[in-house]
Write a structure and sequence with these properties.
Blueprint lengths: L6 E5 L6 H11 L4 E2 L2 E3 L13 E3 L2 H10 L2 E7 L2 E6 H9 L4 E4 L2 H10 L4 E6 L3 H11 L4 H15 L7 E4 L3 H17 L3
Parallel strand pairs: 1-7, 1-8, 2-7, 3-4, 8-9
Antiparallel strand pairs: 3-6, 5-6
Helix pairs in contact: 1-7, 5-6
Bound molecules: guanosine-5'-monophosphate.
Guanosine-5'-monophosphate binds next to strand 5, strand 6 and helix 4.
Length: 190
């Protein structure tokens, strides 16, 4: 089987619950692993270095770009985010399913380099619910909510470019559907 089949790319706006869906998927299937991205965004209270992200200064991030350590990167709401080549290669080489949870521009770039990867877009049940979830987080201010809502609408307009879309109105079902997609793709002999 082509090694790209072990790569699962997930996108969805902030508040779509994509991280919870991926956490659920990995909890149910411990063989599935998540790539840890690099970012220049400061860590949130519950986030740990090397677990949620590798938190870098802008200078260190630019150095990674120059060294060719990133497969893709983008600037998202004022910060850099990028996928480390080492994080992906180490897993694909061992035939371990590797999940990337990245925004739309990065996902499109990954699809170019790994054409056989599987891309899935996670949608919130509605725009109203998305806004409610963002506000509930209460981690950032009103301007942040506004920016994320604008960005969410732009991103959702691109959902049809993904191999699959899933609506996250029920976490368990969404995670189960995601696993089915993965299984089908990896069982497909072509
Ligand atoms: P957050 O700041 O909420 O953790 O992430 C903001 C956005 O950046 C999310 O859509 C997340 O999926 C995306 N993101 C995280 N890591 C990467 C990455 O390595 N590359 C790209 N292109 N996007 C990323």
């Amino acid at each position: 089987m082509n090694r790209d089949r072990y790569l699962l790319v997930i996108s969805g706006p902030s508040g779509s619950g994509k991280d919870s869906v991926v956490a659920k998927l990995m909890g149910l299937h411990p063989g599935i692993e998540c790539s840890v991205s690099a970012t220049t965004r400061p860590p949130r209270e519950d986030e740990m270095e090397g677990v949620h992200y590798f938190f870098l200064t802008r200078e260190a991030f630019r150095q990674k770009i120059a060294q060719g350590d990133l497969i893709e990167y983008t600037e998202y709401v004022g910060n850099y985010y990028g996928t480390l080549k080492s994080q992906v290669d180490i897993r694909l080489d061992k035939k371990i399913t590797c999940v990337l949870v990245i925004e739309v521009e990065g996902a499109a770039n990954i699809k170019q380099f790994y054409p056989d990867c599987t891309t899935v877009f996670i949608l919130p049940p509605s725009i109203e619910e998305l806004e409610r979830r963002l506000r509930k987080r209460g981690t950032e201010d009103e301007e942040w909510v506004h920016k994320r809502m604008m960005r969410a609408e732009e991103e959702m307009a691109l959902a049809n470019q993904y191999d699959y879309t899933l609506v996250n109105d029920d976490l368990d079902r969404c995670a189960a559907d995601l696993f089915e997609i993965l299984k089908q793709r990896q069982d497909d002999k072509e």
